[in-house]
Amino acid sequence: MCIFFLNVSTGNNGTLTTTLDTLGRVSAEANAMTRKIVDITNA
Predict the structure, then answer these.
(1) Chain segment 3-39, per-residue pLDDT in tens
(2) Mind giving me the DSSP string for 1-43?
(3) Would the pTM count as exceeding 0.70?
């Protein structure tokens, strides 16, 4: 089970920051879905 934590701070490179922020959001959503699946499986 992979859990990603990407803490993105505002930097000079706006494109890089936006890309990391998007990846962070996708990872957070994937983690939330994984937790729901695990909860259902363990229920």
Answers:
(1) 544 454 545 556 667 777 788 888 888 889 899 988 8
(2) -----------S-HHHHHHHHHHHHHHHHHHHHHHHHHHHHH-
(3) no
At 42, list the tokens: 């363990």
Q: Are the C-beta atoms of 13 and 40 separated by less than 8 Å?
A: no
d(CA 17, CA 7): 10
User: How many Å apart are CA 19 and CA 13, to the nearest integer?
Assistant: 10
